[in-house]
Every structure is written in structure tokens, then in C-alpha cells.
Design a protein that fits this description.
The protein is mainly α and 396 residues long. It has one domain: Up-down Bundle (Growth Hormone, Chain: A). Helix content is 76%, strand content 0%. It is built from 17 helices and no strands. α5 runs antiparallel to α6, α12 packs antiparallel against α17 and α14 runs antiparallel to α16. The longest helix is centred in the C-terminal third of the chain and has 32 residues. It is globular. 40% of the residues are buried. The C terminus is likely disordered. This is MFS general substrate transporter. It comes from Leucogyrophana mollusca.
Length: 396
């Protein structure tokens, strides 16, 4: 009986370690960002036609407001989400709440029969995206060794590209075949699947395993037998990390924000995010109406244009993350921006639809790759702040 109990306990510990592993958590974050951007992009090629069907005029401006409300909600809610995440002992619980909020926002948008209701749905969708993205990337930073953080964050960014890849063409096709509600039903199905994945995630503290970026298991023996001798080894876990610690273990949120906003690295990274976000949102608003006006594309064909543009981003995000660990995030950011900016000028030319799609794809390849080094840079800044991030017992 005792042997069976020990066997069951061993299996449970093994399962917890697997569910809290770097690979599983990164896979969960990839799925989370994919589902989030899927729900966002499913309706990008649908909103203009829906607003026209409802009898609204100046559709481009109204779609711009819908995108602005989404982005505004995401920006405004992110500090609060980060604050709650740092104060709670479970990032998984916050992310599950975000998935519930995402489902609610999709229901509101699906049943919206007026512009102001659509604005309300987009507002809650922005809050949901803030939770899913912030907590997901935080889980990766909590779990992944520092030398591999760029590659894993790059994979997470590629998950976002995957959602954008599926969303526009599927959303346009579903709208053309079954009407306005169909894209939302499709998105909610995948959100429910992602919810199951979130339930399986086990954080490091719950799994009772040490942070992977600290002392690798194969070097523990060497460390204990080193020149410092066993006298320097403190068997009390509560005192680990206390030596040579001059900063507060639990800094205030205002203190963290102040330190971030006075960091040149942070300000540069945020400026790059602002530039890339503005250009991407501008494309989301204008590309559907531009291609319809110049080449007569319907919602389904507009979705295919986005499809051709987003495929390169899946490759570039992963590649950029890998390069960040090799040559540095700053170098990757500069190179991708220099290579990507000129292609915005090419998009203003109306030579042919094929030229427009190729230019749009190349521009997305380089500008889309910027997300990986920028997020890696922000992760590096926060890792240097004592008491911020990892909630495991060795780091708290």
C-alpha cells in the first residue's frame, strides 16, 4: 500500500514538472497569443462590410475608432493587469479570468446591432488581450533560462502571427457564407479550447521546482564542492538570495513604474512599439477599403490579402527571437526597422494587385519581426529588478 502511494505521488510530481516545464508553458503562451489575435483579426475584414450593412457612412473612420478603442483599452488596462499579477500568487488564475472576459466581449460584438455596442465589445476585448498577452509573456519569463528567453518569446510572437494568418481569410469566408455571427462562433470555439489548456498549466511555485535560470541541476554538485566550501551553503530556503541584496524584495508598483520610465532601454523599446503599432493599425483600417476601391475585392478576397502578408511574419518572429539570443536585441531591432520602413512607400504605388501584396508581405516580414527583440529587451530590463516577476519561493 505504501509502495503504491509513493508511486502515485511520484507520478503526480512528474506530471506537475511536465506541466510547469519551459516547453509546455511556451506552447500554452503560443496558443494563447494565437487565440487572442485570431479573435481580433477574424473581424478585421468584416467590420467595414457590417457597418455598411447597418447603414453607417464614413466607414473607414468608424473602423478606425473601433481599433482605437481596442488599443486604448489594452494600453490603459495593462498596468492594472501587471499590478494584479504581481500581487497575486497565481498568474494562471488571472489568465483564466482574461479568457472569460474575451468570451464575453465576443458575445457582445456578435449581438451588436449598433456602433456604440460594438465599441463596448471592443473595449472589453482590449482588456482581455491585455490580460492574455501580459500574463502569458510573464509566465515565459518566469520559467525560461535567460540565455533562451529571446527564442521562446519569439515563438510566442509567432503564435500571434498564426492567429492573424487564420483570422482574416476565415472571417471573410464565414461572413460571406453564414453571415455576421459565424466568425465570432468560430473564435469562441477556439477560446474554449485554449481555456482547457490554461487549466493544465502549473506554475513553478505550485510545482515546487527551482527557477530554471538559476543553478542548472548538473552543476549543483560542483557548486557545493567549490572553493567556498559547505559553510557558505545556507540550508534555509527563506534566506536564499538575501546575501548581497540591497533592494527591496517587494517593491511598490509606483516604484517599478518609475524605474521603468527612467530607463533609456525601456523608453526606446516603448517608442518602437508605438511606431510599429500605429503603422499596423493604419494598415488594418485602410487595406480592406483600399483593395476594394482599387481592385474591387470583397471580404473573402481581402482576407486572402492579409493571409499573404502574415505568413512571412510567422517566420520572421521566430527567427528574430533566435537571433536576439545570438547577436542582441538592439541589433536585431535596428536591422529589421531599416529593412522594413521603405516598403511602406511601395504600398502607396498602384502598379498592380500582385505588387501590392508582395510589398505588403515584405513589409510585414521585417516590421512584424520587431516584436520579438522589443519584448526580449523589456524582459531583460524587468529581470534586473529585484522582486519583480517570478513568484517561486526562491525568487520571492
Amino acid at each position: 500500500m505504501k509502495s503504491e502511494t509513493l508511486t502515485v505521488a511520484s507520478r503526480l510530481v512528474h506530471a506537475d514538472q511536465w506541466r510547469s516545464s519551459v516547453s509546455f508553458i511556451t506552447l500554452g503562451c503560443v496558443a494563447g497569443t494565437a487565440v487572442d489575435t485570431l479573435n481580433y483579426s477574424l473581424v478585421i475584414s468584416v467590420f467595414p462590410f457590417r457597418l455598411e450593412h447597418l447603414g453607417y457612412h464614413d466607414v473607414s473612420s468608424l473602423v478606425g475608432w473601433l481599433l482605437f478603442i481596442y488599443s486604448g483599452a489594452l494600453v490603459l488596462s495593462t498596468p492594472m493587469v501587471a499590478m494584479v499579477s504581481e500581487r497575486m500568487h497565481s498568474r494562471r488564475g488571472v489568465m483564466i479570468a482574461g479568457l472569460f472576459s474575451l468570451l464575453a466581449s465576443q458575445l457582445v460584438l456578435m449581438e451588436a446591432s449598433s456602433f456604440w455596442v460594438m465599441c463596448l465589445g471592443r473595449f472589453f476585448e482590449g482588456i482581455s488581450s491585455s490580460i492574455i498577452l501580459t500574463i502569458g509573456l510573464s509566465l515565459i519569463c518566469d520559467t525560461t533560462p535567460e540565455a533562451q528567453i529571446g527564442a521562446h518569446l519569439g515563438l510566442a510572437m509567432a503564435g500571434g502571427s498564426l492567429g492573424q494568418l487564420i483570422g482574416p481569410p476565415v472571417g471573410g469566408a464565414l461572413y460571406a457564407r453564414w453571415g455576421y455571427r459565424a466568425p465570432f462562433v468560430f473564435g469562441m470555439i477556439f477560446t474554449a479550447i485554449d481555456f482547457v489548456g490554461r487549466l493544465l498549466v502549473v506554475e513553478k511555485m505550485a510545482a515546487a521546482i527551482p527557477p530554471s535560470e538559476e543553478v542548472p541541476p548538473e552543476h549543483v554538485a560542483d557548486k557545493e564542492e567549490g572553493p567556498a566550501g559547505p559553510a557558505d551553503h545556507d540550508p534555509n530556503p527563506s534566506t536564499l538570495g538575501a546575501k548581497n541584496d540591497t533592494g527591496p524584495v517587494n517593491p511598490s508598483i509606483l516604484g517599478v513604474v518609475f524605474r521603468l520610465m527612467t530607463s533609456a532601454r525601456t523608453l526606446v523599446a516603448l517608442s518602437v512599439i508605438l511606431f510599429c503599432s500605429m503603422t499596423s493599425l493604419a494598415a488594418d483600417v485602410t487595406v480592406p477599403l483600399h483593395t476594394q476601391a482599387i481592385w474591387g475585392l470583397d471580404s473573402a478576397k481581402v482576407g486572402l490579402v492579409f493571409l499573404a502578408a502574415i505568413i512571412p511574419t510567422m517566420i520572421s518572429s521566430t527567427l528574430a527571437g533566435f537571433l536576439c539570443d545570438r547577436i542582441g536585441a538592439e541589433t536585431v531591432t535596428v536591422l529589421t526597422l531599416i529593412a522594413g520602413v521603405p516598403w511602406w512607400g511601395a504600398l502607396t504605388k498602384q502598379f498592380s494587385l500582385a505588387f501590392f501584396i508582395v510589398s505588403f508581405g515584405i513589409q510585414n516580414f521585417f516590421i512584424g519581426a520587431v516584436a520579438s527583440p522589443v519584448v526580449t529587451e523589456l524582459a531583460a530590463v524587468t529581470r534586473g529588478m529585484k522582486g519583480v516577476g517570478c513568484k517561486c519561493r526562491d525568487c520571492s
